[in-house]
Write a structure and sequence with these properties.
The structure holds two protein chains of two kinds. Chain A is mainly alpha-helical. Chain A has helices at 2-11, 15-30, 39-66, 79-92, 95-126, 128-141, 150-157, 161-185, 189-197, 202-239, 249-258, 262-294. Chain A has one domain: MetI-like fold (Orthogonal Bundle), CATH 1.10.3720. Helix content of chain A is 79%, strand content 0%. The longest helix of chain A has 38 residues, at 202-239. In chain A, 29% of the residues are buried. Chain B is of the alpha/beta class. Chain B has a domain at 92-156. Chain B is built from seven helices and ten strands. Chain B has helices at 58-66, 97-107, 112-125, 141-154, 171-188, 199-205, 236-255; strands at 3-6, 16-27, 30-42, 47-52, 73-79, 83-85, 159-163, 191-196, 208-213, 218-224. A six-stranded mixed sheet of chain B has the order 6-7-8-4-9-10, with helices on both faces. A four-stranded mixed sheet of chain B has the order 1-5-2-3, covered by helices on one side. In chain B, a hairpin with a 2-residue loop joins strand 2 (16-27) and strand 3 (30-42). In chain B, helix 2 packs across helix 3, helix 2 (97-107) runs parallel beside helix 4 and helix 3 (112-125) packs across helix 4. Chain B starts with a strand and ends with a helix. The chains are: A mainly alpha, B alpha/beta.
Chain lengths: 301, 259
């Protein structure tokens, strides 16, 4: 600290550099350094608890079987039986096929929904007439389960992949568009004023100010849009059974039901859950955290 | 009846010319007059503060000059689009400090290869060399306002409008920023129209202090501040003039309690 003192007194002779010195001091005092927490802390706080929860659920499940509380394998298969089913499918080489068939459909449908939902959301958010005309319908559509579209889609498009994409779009487009609309609504008016004084008006304002400012809401919409895509797809797959459609996770579920194989049904349910969580953890959660952290919106407690 | 951004070619002897401007808004009790016949000329390179209590319409007046709103009566002429700085820093949190400044340059049409260098110069001007890659939330309040000042200066307008830019800062930081603003004003030769409700701040900074009365805002009085720069806020002449202006301001406020 002694060296800092001498520097300040030394610079005191010249007025300008003295001011610079005070400023540098104030800046140093008021700037806080934030870093990422160490891995051990992340492990203890974020990774360990869900592992415990999973183990507890498995233990209860096994307990129900071992203690003969549920004594009917056709109603509740043991964790071992489900595992054996998975192993069997893996050895036959079909396990990854099931997953990939569904995931590729889901992601492709989601990307289509993104391409349609984004401009739609922007137009609804920015054009008053369009908003008044279709805004309420768009948010209403969110509460309509997309399964309701399946019969209509089958009649229109037949038992083809197009029918499944149609159902995904009807589920995900409103979510994505609505996320963007609420993101745009939450843009602080101050940013718009600041943008206008800098000359960002019209399309330039939309590109440079409105879109980036609305990003947190938009990403939340994407996350929900993915969840809706995945659910819609599963509903469509359960109903649409055709040899040339391939076997996805939804079809696997239906196969299990027709064969009265509870182990297959359980396997399908677990895989659907697993994929949904994995995509969220691998794509959407990191994206959301990155957006929030770079804006200083991720408060660490 | 309009805000005109005159072209640079028809160079004027005023950085801003506000002529008989009135502004009224539709309120619950019909049309409400906020500004009443305001005329102010800001000379090139001049530093003018607008002083007034709540409800004097000083922020409304700045919005009119900035072209964010239109006067009901009268006209405002400025040379080009004025730069505007707010009480909140209004920096975009999705951009770094440097990128905020670069955006202003980009929107002004500065070619890509010149932007980075110009940004570094501006950061150096506000003594934030090395802050280019800093996120807005990593900066202190004073640093944010300096980045905001650099961004406003990036517009290279010859008129800088400031709407209580230091009101939210602590006293020590504000004091330092007064010194900085005076230095930058002298270095760049920009004209400043500075709105505040802090009498000492007004006297500390300005060459001319204009006092507005409230509801509706009218020009109550005007002082020319002859105290040489650099001034300090605790200097005796600054304090003396502040006392005089405060007395008049209090008189203006008192009138509103006598109904």
């Amino acid at each position: 600290m002694a060296s800092t003192d001498t520097k300040t007194t030394g610079a005191g002779a010249k007025d300008g550099s003295a001011l610079g010195g005070i400023e540098a001091g104030l800046d140093a005092l008021e700037t806080s350094v934030t870093g990422r927490p160490p891995f051990r802390q992340t492990f203890r706080e974020k990774i360990f608890p869900p592992i415990v929860a999973t183990v507890v659920v498995l233990a209860i499940w096994q307990g129900l079987i071992s203690l003969k509380i549920v004594d009917d394998a056709s109603k509740l298969p043991s964790p071992g039986a489900v595992w054996a089913e998975a192993e069997d499918a893996w050895l036959k080489g079909t396990l990854l096929d099931y997953i990939w068939t569904s995931v590729s459909r889901g992601l492709f449908g989601f990307v289509l929904a993104l391409i349609i939902g984004t401009p739609l959301g922007l137009v609804v958010a920015r054009v008053k007439f369009v908003r008044a005309a279709i805004g309420p319908i768009l948010s209403g559509l969110q509460s309509l389960p997309s399964v309701a579209w399946v019969p209509a889609a089958v009649i229109w498009l037949g038992l083809k992949p197009e029918m499944m994409y149609a159902v995904i779009l009807l589920g995900a487009v409103p979510s994505i568009a609505n996320g963007l609309v609420s993101g745009v609504d939450q843009v602080p008016p101050l940013f718009l004023r600041a943008g206008r004084t800098l000359g960002a008006t019209g399309l330039r304002g939309t590109w440079h100010i409105v879109m980036p400012a609305a990003l947190p809401g938009y990403v939340a919409g994407l996350k929900q849009g993915w969840a809706f895509s995945w659910r819609s797809l599963m509903a469509a797959e359960i109903i649409a059974q055709a040899p040339d459609l391939g076997v996805g996770l939804g079809q696997l579920l239906e196969v299990g039901r027709t064969n009265s194989s509870m182990a297959t049904v359980f396997l399908a349910i677990l895989l659907i859950l697993f994929v949904g969580i994995a995509i969220d953890l691998l794509i959407f959660s990191p994206l959301e955290r990155w957006v929030l952290r770079s804006r200083g919106l991720l408060v660490k407690s | 009846m309009a805000t005109t951004f005159a072209k640079a070619a028809e160079s004027v002897e005023h950085a801003a010319r506000i002529e008989h401007v009135s502004k009224s808004f539709a309120g619950p009790a019909g049309q409400q007059l906020v500004l009443d016949d305001i005329s102010i000329d800001v000379a090139p390179g001049e530093f003018v503060t607008l002083l007034g209590a709540s409800g004097c319409g000083k922020s409304t007046l700045l919005n009119l000059v900035a072209g964010l709103d239109e006067p009901t009566v009268g006209s405002i002429t400025t040379e080009g689009r004025p730069a505007l700085m707010f009480q909140e820093h209004a920096l975009f949190p999705w951009l770094t400090a440097g990128k905020n400044i670069e955006l202003a340059l980009r929107l002004r049409g500065v070619p890509k290869n010149e932007r980075r260098e110009r940004t570094e110069e501006l950061l150096e001007l506000v003594r934030l060399k090395g802050a280019y890659g800093k996120r807005v939330h990593e900066l202190s309040g004073g640093m944010r306002q300096r980045v905001a000042l650099a961004r406003a200066l990036a517009q290279e307008s010859n008129l800088l409008l400031m709407d209580e830019p230091f009101a939210a800062l602590d006293a020590i930081t504000r004091d330092v920023l007064h010194d900085e603003l005076t230095r930058i004003w002298a270095e760049t030769g920009v004209s400043v129209l500075f709105v505040t409700h802090n009498v000492r701040e007004a006297v500390r900074l300005a060459q001319r202090v204009i006092l507005l009365s409230s509801r509706p805002g009218r020009i109550a009085r005007e002082w020319t501040v002859g105290i040489p720069q650099p001034r300090r806020i605790e200097d005796a002449p600054v304090a003396e003039l502040s006392v005089e202006i405060t007395e008049v301001l209090r008189g203006e406020i008192r009138r509103h309690g006598q109904h």
